[in-house]
Amino acid sequence: MLAVLWQDLLSDISLLVDSATFETWFRPLQPKELREDGILVIAASSQFAVDFLEQHYKEKLLSLARNRLPTLREVLILATDESQRPTPLASPRSFSIHAVPKAVVPPTTFNQNFTFDTFVVGPGNEFAKSAALAVAKAPGKTKFNPLLIYGGVGLGKTHLLQAVGLFLASQQKALRIAYASSEEFYLNFIDAIKNNSSRKFSDSFKSADILLIDDIQFLSGKESTQEEFFYIFNTLYQNQRQIVLTSDLPPGSLKGLQDRLISRFQWGLCVDIQPPNLETRVAILKRKAEQDNLNIPEPILLYIAETVSSNIRELEGIIIRLLAYSSITKRDITIDLVKSILKGTQKNEKPRFSIEQIIETVADYYKVPLNNIREKNRRKEVAFCRQLAMYIVKSFTNYSLKSIGLHFGGRDHSTVIHAIQHIEFLRKNERSVASDIENIISLLSNQQHA
Ligand code: ADP
Ligand code: MG
Fold first, then answer.
1. Residue 114: CB within 6 Å of ligand 1?
2. What spacing in Å lies between the alpha carbon of 316 and ligand 1's midpoint?
């Protein structure tokens, strides 16, 4: 029973957290006991892990466990030595840190395709590219320090960040380039604390000539990591080292990041990347097709570019499918083939609405002021609208739980999970909620086609 429950729980969790988090924090856990009074006891290998899980995942674990076993009352996470004790609730917390498995952080290398040369420029991204190139040519010497590039998913932020790194690496071999996603930064930092090597961690970053950090929105809510980042930032900045950052939100909207960090980001230059217009999409498709030696007639390129407009990663996806088709069948690429490929993707693909559009439509539908949905308003009907808006955002966009939380007043992702589960429950059990959702989705689709 316990083993089965645990396996189920683990598989639920693995769907909700990224794989590094899963391997680091959840895989090492041991189920210990399912008590008659409805308490599930889990052992973690250190007090540090216990504290981390309690702080970030306690509610989520409990709600997932309750989904599997409704009679469950509580999930107790204990450090291994403690879990043996008869009255764990009363036992004092020990702060000794035991050896735990090393955090699984994938080694980061640059993608060799992410160069300035392969980056196609259009009105939405040319400023960002020029700024990145200027910085790569004279790191630390321009006014663009730090350089913060922000914009939606799949629009080329990581590409530009790595282009800076690749450019510098090719020009000046001796440069020390520190590159990490915020998530890696965070996981490595946590790992360093566990291993008593946070000094080493911080020195390694402070001695860098260039600091490149991707997706800083991920640091939101992670106070001690931000603290560490703040000191690293200051040291490098004072030594006129170049710092380049990316974010999926403009600095002003980065909820959960300390104000002093946000204000430092604004010392330099913040540039955004906008979705590509039609010409740029065609140019990108052409470039990708050339790279892959794929011969696609002009009208077909135009057709694809007109049909797929949301982001560049998707355009690449179409090229990859065409490439697969043509290498297998050795036939030419025709408009009918493209149509069938696009239809295939669109059938599985949900229509895309913007997060703003969704919030506005839900607010309008329930006649609730827009700002109440975005902010921390606890009135019951507002909370319901907000949860429903989160549910629709999750269903119709690619935003992560984390970033959905950020768009709704800086809520953490366990709140978002709870909201989604709650609405899913209501949708199945209350006819009025199900029909509200249908109505809202059709309102959204109508806007799309208007
Ligand atoms: P983001 O980090 O903004 O989510 P990425 O940088 O990962 O997006 O870009 C997604 C994909 O689209 C990558 O394969 C990237 O090479 C490609 N891409 C994005 N912008 C451009 C561009 N302007 N020219 C060519 N390829 C691009
Ligand atoms: Mg990216």
1. yes
2. 9
Q: Residue of the nearest CA to atom 18 in ligand 1?
A: 156
Mean pLDDT on 432-443: 87
Alpha carbon nearest to ligand 1 atom 11, residue: 313
Tell me, using a 6 A CB cutoff, whether residue 120 lines ligand 1: yes
Residues with CB under 5 A from ligand 2 (ion): 157-158
At 434, is the pLDDT very low, low, confident or very high (cuts 50, 70, 90)?
confident
- Is the Cβ atom of 119 under 6 angstroms away from ligand 1? yes
pTM of the model: 0.58
Taking the centre of ligand 1 as the mean of its atom positions, its distance from the CA of residue 284, in whole angstroms, is 10
Q: Atom 21, ligand 1: which residue's CA is nearest?
A: 156
| The domain over range 126-273 is classified in CATH as 3.40.50.300 | yes
> Rounded to the nearest 5°, which phi and psi values hold at 78?
-130, 150
Q: Which CATH number fits domain 355-449: 3.30.70.660, 1.10.1750.10, 3.60.110.10, 3.90.1150.10?
A: 1.10.1750.10
Query: In this structure, which CATH number among 3.30.160.670, 3.40.630.40, 3.40.1010.20, 3.30.300.180 belongs to the domain 2-82?
Result: 3.30.300.180
Q: Name the more confident of 292 and 450.
A: 292
